[in-house]
Amino acid sequence: MKIALIGLGSVGRGVAEMITKKDLGLTITGLADSKSGAMDPKGLDIPTLLTHKKKNGHCGDPDISTLDIIKKADYDALVEVTPTNALSGEPAIGYIKAALARKKHVVTSNKGPIALANKELRTMAQENGVALRYEATVAGAIPIMHTLEHGLAGNDILALYGVLNGTCNYILTRMADEGLTYEQALMEAREMGYAEADPTYDVKGIDASIKLVILANNIWGHDVRLTDVDCTGIDLLTPDALRLADDEGCTIRLIAEAIPRKNILRVSPRIIEKSHPLVVDGTLNALTLETDMAKEITLIGRGAGSVETASAIIGDLLYIKDRYDGSA
User: pTM here?
Assistant: First the structure.
């Protein structure tokens, strides 16, 4: 199956490297970063292009744009891993629509389009007889969408609770374990590469809220938006709060929860017992699904990372390859 890959940040590099490394029946015929592009219907020399990107800051011809790749390259599935815009979802929504209009499958890790235009994009994919897959938008390597679609098929999902942001979880783990202040733990997270220079998106709970929106819409067919989530971040937490929780055999985690029967859609720091399955350390993610037949199912794994996210994307690509026989 032929792949066009747009976006060559950490996730894009991970996807390109793993497709090149593994014999999966996938060939990258189109590649674009923010400054250039390359395409060859017979397959691109990915190691050379990645080396060129590292040395010169772009992967290919500056005269070839992302839209050129999407509209002109020879491919079966578009892998869209450009940066997330939580406010408008653009330009990624436009990229995805352009590929779907060509009757091409789409796999994305981009939370913006799926949170803001999921219903429209899924309808467009269905009308064009192609797949839209987005396992990598929530919880990195954890196969939550696959579990919901296949493993728990036939179950009614009654509620979900999750630790969906690794940056916040790392900060809270370090504050609890070492008595660090929020500022100290955040500085350490930056040094470790777990937090951005501007951590607002993570520590204010916005990232977890977007993932909660995607899950709620996917599970219950809702049309909720980011503004529908009652959101509180971790940036005002103190070591004293964690010490008080510790005295009661508890700790604090940033929990995303959706409980339709109680009309709850919320992200906030919660005091929970240390023995609870959602108390995971470091940058791990965890998600508990409350169901009618299987009761409670908890999934734990790496919620971010280049290769870890590539795992989810490649899983979606192979699902498409197997189901659609590699063609749109």
Answer: 0.93
